[in-house]
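User: My notes are a mess, but here's the protein and zinc ion's SMILES. Can you give me a structure?
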Amino acid sequence: MEPRPIGMFKLVAASVLVSCVIAAVPASAQDAKRSIEQVTDDIYRFQNNFHNAMFVVTDDGIVVTDPINADAVAWLKAELTDRFDKPVTHMILSHSHGDHASGGQGWGDIEVVAHEVAKKNVEAGRVDTALPTVTFIDTHNFSTGGKEFELTFLGKGHGDDLIATIVRPDNVAFVVDAVSPGRVPYRDFPGADIDGLINQIKAIEGLDFEVMVPGHSRNGTKQDATDGRIYVEKLRAGVLEALKNGKTEEEIVASDLMSEYSDWGAYDQWRDLNIRGMARWLQETGKVN
Ligand SMILES: [Zn+2]
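Assistant: No problem, the inputs look usable. Here's the predicted complex:
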């Protein structure tokens, strides 16, 4: 019986130590919910909390997209090493916003493909990530390991450097932030030119693809892009008409505008903010008078 209390003491001491170690890990890393989902034979979606990225396994290596952040890169790097015996060769940045583009240095010395303005935004210190090594203005195509990558600038709207990436022969598009399938737009359209945003979604609708992997929410199709554009156009028209009729922002929020979308994701959290953001953008850009 003698060793028992000593053993229990050791157990307690060890668990206290473990608790301290866990508590020292930053909450963001500790709580992050991450997963990998296969989209086609060679294309995968990586989810990190509420953000998605895509990666493509080619004959010559792996092409990753948005890093999201340094912890996400570290996690994905370990997963790719476990699952595939291939080097990461390229990273494609959808745009330079910090919640998608941060931490790209974690991939090491690889090709980084992005819009020319994204490189300027990285150089200006707007986001802490790897500096793009290949940039373009309108479109840029490249092939690696039997896959073709078609990159298209979507114009200004949500940011000034947003691109779509289409992978062939899979016909899968990676599209971030301009539209999120089955979900209302993010909050009050922070920083967006809303007419530019509508044009970005139209540009996406003009591309040739079958599956859309988005930066947020579930995977979709071109129909989801169309539905998302119609939402923004209905919101724009409804808010503009109400403002022209002398309604206040509060009165529009209290109306049933957009209620037919109540089954969309984040409707309860963001529908009111969508109206407020639209009302302010219409007023600030002189569309009401
Ligand atoms: Zn963004």
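Residues 1-27 have pLDDT under 50 and may be disordered.
User: Great, I'll file this with my notes.
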